[in-house]
Design brief:
heterodimer, A: mainly alpha, 4 helices, B: mainly alpha, 9 helices, 0% strand
Chain lengths: 88, 188
């Protein structure tokens, strides 16, 4: 192993002896959980709204694709050419 | 250990006091791990909180197959990774000159303070791409094996091994660019 990686490995070994800060976060965690639980209750109408929107979008997409297929179908043009065109 | 599991199960059933006990049991362990992701005490505290909040809302997915601490470490690694990704997006990088700020203690030529060693390594790893940084952080600071890293991160063993190898190569190049060996060559 070359010198530079040797130095890095030694630094890593030394770093294990580092004195780390102490944490006491239980109260903060419980407060955050409580807040999120309360806010979470208000999420249901939003989810419902998102669901209804998704269903509506699917229906619109379904009919749009059908309409698009009709427009692009060459057979349709062969059997009923220029139906909607008024010449005079 | 058995009490821990009892508390975890009670927490999953919605017992807040049981979860408070779980947090108290594991907060130092998670704090130690999150310290590897940021050396700012305030940021670190927020990350530790994030881990326990995320864990609380995922408790139902804990099957009790392995130790709870392993499951928690996995969440903590994910939270830390996400934190680095956010930093990367915000383009928070450490300037080269910041290595100058590390007090290498010139009076004790063969000694370096563990905190300074950790800070130097942290700054060096911060110059890497997030995935590489994650592998090497877990390897160097947490003494994780390839299997353990793969399990925590959710990669394959072979993929993790390959990434670790390449990451060490990249680290070497970065260290050379930063003249790392000149700065720390007195380390014996």
């Amino acid at each position: 192993m070359d010198k530079i990686m040797n130095i890095i490995d030694k630094l890593a070994v030394k770093a294990h002896d580092e004195v780390l800060p102490q944490f006491s976060i239980a109260d903060d965690v419980m407060t955050r959980i409580g807040l999120m639980k309360r806010n979470g209750q208000g999420l249901l109408p939003l989810e419902l709204f998102a669901g209804v929107t998704a269903v509506a979008a699917t229906i619109v997409l379904f009919f749009s694709l059908q309409a698009l297929q009709t427009l692009l179908n060459p057979m349709y043009q062969l059997l009923a050419p220029n139906q909607g065109v008024t010449l005079w | 250990m058995e009490n821990d599991l009892k508390d975890v199960l009670a927490s999953a059933a919605g017992d807040g006091e049981a979860y408070r006990r779980v947090v108290k049991t594991y907060e130092q362990q998670i704090g130690r791990l999150m310290w590897r992701f940021t050396r700012d005490k305030g940021e670190c505290e927020t990350l530790v909180q994030d881990v326990f909040v995320e864990a609380f809302f995922s408790l139902k997915s804990y099957k009790g197959k392995g130790p709870f601490s392993h499951w928690l470490n996995k969440i903590a690694t994910r939270v830390g990774y996400r934190f680095w990704k956010q930093q990367e997006r915000a383009r928070i990088v450490i300037a080269v000159e910041d290595f100058e700020g590390i007090d290498v203690g010139d009076s004790q030529q063969d000694q370096i303070d563990p905190t300074e060693a950790a800070a130097a390594l942290h700054k060096l790893l911060a110059k890497m791409q997030t995935e590489d940084r994650l592998v090497l952080t877990l390897m160097y600071f947490e003494d994780c094996s390839i299997e353990e890293i793969a399990r925590r991160v959710g990669w394959t063993r072979a993929g993790t091994k390959m990434r670790a190898m390449r990451a060490r190569g990249k680290l070497k190049k970065i260290a050379e660019k930063e003249k790392f060996s000149e700065r720390f060559e007195w380390i014996k």
